Amino acid sequence: MKQLQILNLNKNKIESVNDLKFLVNITRLNLNSNNIEDITCLSKLKDLRELHLFKNRIVDISVVRNFRKLVILDVSKNKVINIDALQNLYLVKLNVSHNYISDFSPLQYRASVNTFHYKLFCRVLKITS
Predict the structure, then answer these.
(1) Are 113 and 96 in contact (CB under 8 A)?
(2) Where are the beta strands (DSSP E) in 20-118?
(3) How many CB atoms lie within 10 A of CB 73?
(4) Which domain of life is it from (predicted)?
(5) Which end of the chain is least crowded, N or C, by CB within 10 Å?
């Protein structure tokens, strides 16, 4: 299993991804539509190029700052508030729709992003010039 590069665990009612930390050669990981809250154990998956986490219960995505090869990230329909971890990534496709993000400044000057989705669950959105 260590040589596995692509894994799709979409719609499996998964709550924990702790066992995935050993899949260090994985490049594409689909965990869409599960019940995942914590992804910090994925920190050793340094070869990730695509990470799909749509429709989970994730609040903290700080672990993605470790994924220097990441080009596609979908964290839509989660509970994400802070996207500081995306600041130094060179993503081509990013979906952060339906989260609770109020500060998009970490994405400022991100010319690498070709596709960006950001429909918000708005509580209070501060807009400054």
Answers:
(1) no
(2) 28-30, 50-52, 72-74, 93-95, 115-117
(3) 26
(4) Eukaryota
(5) C
39, 53 Cβ separation under 8 angstroms? yes
pTM, full prediction: 0.85
- CA gap 12, 50 in Å, rounded: 19
Rounded CA-CA distance 6/112 in Å is 24
Which residue in this structure is represented by tokens 């695509």? 50
> What is the distance between the alpha carbons of residues 122 and 15, in angstroms, rounded to a whole number?
26
- 17-70 residue pLDDT tens: 999 999 999 999 999 999 999 999 999 999 999 999 999 999 999 999 999 999
